[in-house]
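Might you be able to check the backbone structure tokens below? Thank you kindly.
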Amino acid sequence: MNGRPSMELNDAEQQHEAALLASESPVAAAIRKDNSLRLKLDHTRAAREAFLRGEHLNSTPHAAAEKLIGNHANHVPAMKSEHKAENGNGTAKETFKEKLQEKIQERNSKLKKEGTNGDSAAATPAPAMTTANTVRLIEGYVGFANLPDQVYRKAVKRGFEFSLMVVGESGLGKSTFINSLFLTDIYNEKNPGPSLRVKKTLKVETTSSLLVEKGVNLKLTIVDTPGFGDFVDNTNCWQPIIDCIEQRYNEYLNEESKVSRKTIPDYRIHCCLYFIAPTGHGLKPLDVEFMKKLHDKVNIIPVIAKADTMTPEEIREFKRTILNEIRQNKIQIYEFPDCDDEEENKVNKQLKEKVPFAIVGSNCIMEVNGKQVRGRQYPWGVVDIENMQHCDFLALRTMLIRRHMHDLKDVTHNVHYENFRYRKLLASVSSDKGKTAPNKNPLQQLQEEREEHERRLKKMEQEMEQVFEMKVKEKELKLRESEQDLEKRRLALMSTLDQQEKETEEKRKQFEDEKRVWEEQQDELRRRSLETQDKKKEKKKLF
């Protein structure tokens, strides 16, 4: 109780414990109850997982649970029976602590032996460092065992993203397979599949859907390629698909390079299902060329479409032929990861034997032996697409969604996207984009980059000087031309002024002449008028 292992107490300890319980606060009591409930829950969960793994056949549930959860606080329940056999006095506690210390020492010795074996098997010695390999059992409940629950709650709250590309010729059942895979009508009358569209051009199209299952949100993006392989000349028909994949990688790289990158949407293609026509004669040249162009850019999973058109023997022979051609052409398809768990490796081996998956799709739900199944009705019977004896649809769904969806995303991020990022950054750094930079000493590479930078600066300086000289010459030429133009205009104005001055002088002379004549005329008139007046006066005097 109260942070100690659960065990039988003597009378003195029971009285002391009762006094502590009576004096503790409500908050402390709540914490104590929560700790005890969490210990019981962890023990029950570990025992259940051990039972499901089959460890109860060789050991007790307690021992299996201790093995599963790391032999920490659950060592105590396994030793209850031994502790109860001791006396009720204080020697029981000492005996229990001694046994607990023995268990810890045995555990530490095993870890040291494993570390010694691992160090001797290593090819290169590890750098000198101090490593604490001792395992310390915590008496009570701290809380870091809930870290997986925190990660789970955060992941469920954020949701998941997955982008699936389906490539293949029209009429191979890609849309039907997608609807069967996710048990929903992603392609329907409003959004028909690629083979039902009138215009069949090689164009990458995207369909996004939000799927909800038991409170878990999955943002599913389906990328289809209507028109692939439907033309007489299929030269470079895979180029739009490559451009789409690299464009999504480039968008993700740009989002990573931003200053603010709190939430980066992941629209990268995580898996490409390539549908192979059930010809029974192996891969077509188009199939081989397509997978050779894309196998280093995306996870490729080959799929034999419409497997119900072939017999089981034909399917097995067809699979062998396809795998041989894939190995001969050095095409890298998706590889299943290695696991430490034997059961997981056994399941992966069974799934790997199914590659390439021979599938059958169906949107029809029918009743077979009182059970609702998705299948196809034929005169000889019903093909149940979820029956492993009929096709590999269930194996493909198990591999793609239930077991390796996260691994597909990891391989996309850690392998294909990193290769694209390396090529992209290398092309931006290297001056010669047509060649790949060899492995060099970083200091030498920095020195070469510095020299290259200095050469660029000198070249830019020379170019800028040439441009400056050209601009100066052009400016001087413009100034000369403008000076000549001004001089011409000045001369023209001077000649115009001289002409106007001459004309003005002539007019002035003419005006003076006319004035003189007018004055003479006026003087003559005044003289005549005076003479007339004088004559009139004389006549008056006579009379």
